[in-house]
């Protein structure tokens, strides 16, 4: 049984607490947050104790592993603090708000980096994972183009945007990791950003973005992002190769379709947001983390994946701001 502490009892902390509760080899013993209300609510809901003192997490003898869902600016401090006292870590994306901090984290971790997993949960989505495995098996021949579509149902609150690092580091980071999952290292990035949401514009961030990337073999990827989407959480992927294509479409609660005199193929709404759409991915992510901890082996995705996704986010930010392609 792996005994977990959760740092940060917000949206994603609650998602992880649910996955831990559902896992037969995991139990939640402690919740830490900077504020009492979220810490207490999550701890009480999951039968754990809570603390407002981070040292209690580090010193807890009944905590083997820590899940970090604190605001991004706190990730490096929480990773280093947990690893220093011998805990295993599953940390949410992105590693940090800038490359210098992420690289410092990687360097300070040294060999202990093997104890840290990065929360790129979409690699564990059953559909995306299957496409990745089938591409690797050569089923569609040489991979030539990857299209990743990711649109949120509604924008985050302004205070979240302010501390998020911007759309490329906060949102597109998942898609940068997905592109690396399929195409490996990227050599060119061209990004465009624009605004349809006045509140996000006022916060100094883009709410719509498109990014074009190329790897050293010449394979291309396109990422399509929007912070808002009228029909819900739009999460699709297409891998296009010399011998065919593999597609993952949006998921709905059931597969029921309606046909009538005025329409065909009408379906219920798409799953509403990350908690429901990626529920299986978070649970498979936790499975992979626990298996690596139990077998004491390398964890993937790791800190290098976190740093490299952030490198792409910084390149995209520069590209969109300066109106030019960035070569890596
Ligand atoms: N993988 C995913 O699908 C996914 C989804 C959402 C968020 N995230 C990531 O998770 C992190 C948290 O995002 P969220 O949406 O849950 O935010 P949130 O604002 O809902 O929750 C953050 C929580 O951290 C607490 N907090 C504030 N300062 C703190 C501190 N110094 N130490 C510890 N806790 C502190 C807040 O009180 C709050 O409870 C971000 O890094 C975000 O990028 C990942």
Automatic annotation (TrEMBL):
- Domain (Gfo/Idh/MocA-like oxidoreductase N-terminal) ranges: 2-120
| Database matches in InterPro entries | Gfo/Idh/MocA-like_OxRdtase_N, GFO_IDH_MocA-like_dom, Myo_inos_IolG, NAD(P)-bd_dom_sf
**Signal peptide feature range:** none
SUPFAM superfamilies this protein is in? Glyceraldehyde-3-phosphate dehydrogenase-like, C-terminal domain (SSF55347), NAD(P)-binding Rossmann-fold domains (SSF51735)
Give the UniProt keywords, A-Z.
Oxidoreductase
- Keyword Acetylation in the entry? The reply is no
All copies of domain GFO/IDH/MocA-like oxidoreductase, residue ranges: 128-246
Q: Which GO terms describe its molecular function?
A: nucleotide binding; oxidoreductase activity
Similarity comment text for this entry:
Belongs to the Gfo/Idh/MocA family.
Q: What is this protein called?
A: Inositol 2-dehydrogenase
């Amino acid at each position: 049984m792996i005994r977990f502490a959760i740092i940060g009892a917000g949206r994603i902390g609650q998602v992880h607490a649910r996955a831990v509760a559902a896992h037969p080899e995991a139990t939640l013993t402690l919740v830490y947050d900077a504020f009492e209300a979220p810490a207490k609510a999550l701890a009480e809901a999951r039968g754990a104790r809570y603390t407002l003192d981070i040292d209690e997490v580090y010193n807890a003898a009944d905590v083997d592993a820590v899940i970090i869902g604190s605001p991004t600016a706190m990730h490096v401090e929480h990773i280093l603090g947990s690893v220093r006292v011998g805990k295993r870590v599953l940390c949410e994306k992105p590693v940090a708000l800038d490359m210098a901090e992420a690289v410092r984290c990687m360097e300070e971790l040294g060999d202990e980096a093997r104890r840290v997993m990065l929360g790129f949960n979409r690699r564990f989505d059953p559909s995306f994972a299957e496409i990745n495995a089938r591409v690797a098996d050569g089923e569609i021949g040489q991979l030539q183009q990857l299209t990743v579509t990711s649109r949120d149902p509604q924008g985050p609150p302004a205070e979240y945007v302010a501390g998020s690092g911007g759309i490329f580091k906060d949102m597109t980071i998942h898609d940068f990791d997905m592109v690396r999952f399929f195409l490996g290292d990227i050599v060119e990035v061209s990004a465009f950003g624009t605004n349809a949401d006045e509140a996000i514009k006022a916060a100094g961030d883009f709410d719509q973005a498109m990014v074009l990337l190329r790897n050293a073999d010449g394979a291309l990827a396109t990422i399509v992002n929007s912070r808002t989407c009228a029909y819900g959480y739009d999460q699709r992927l297409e891998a296009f190769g010399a011998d065919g294509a593999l597609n993952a479409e949006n998921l709905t609660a059931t597969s029921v379709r309606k046909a009538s005199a005025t329409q065909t193929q009408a379906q219920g709404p798409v799953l509403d947001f990350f908690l429901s759409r990626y529920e299986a991915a978070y649970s498979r992510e936790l499975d992979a983390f626990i298996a690596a901890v139990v077998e004491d082996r390398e964890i993937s995705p790791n800190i290098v994946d976190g740093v490299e996704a952030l490198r792409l986010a910084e390149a995209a930010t520069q590209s969109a701001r300066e109106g030019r392609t960035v070569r890596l």
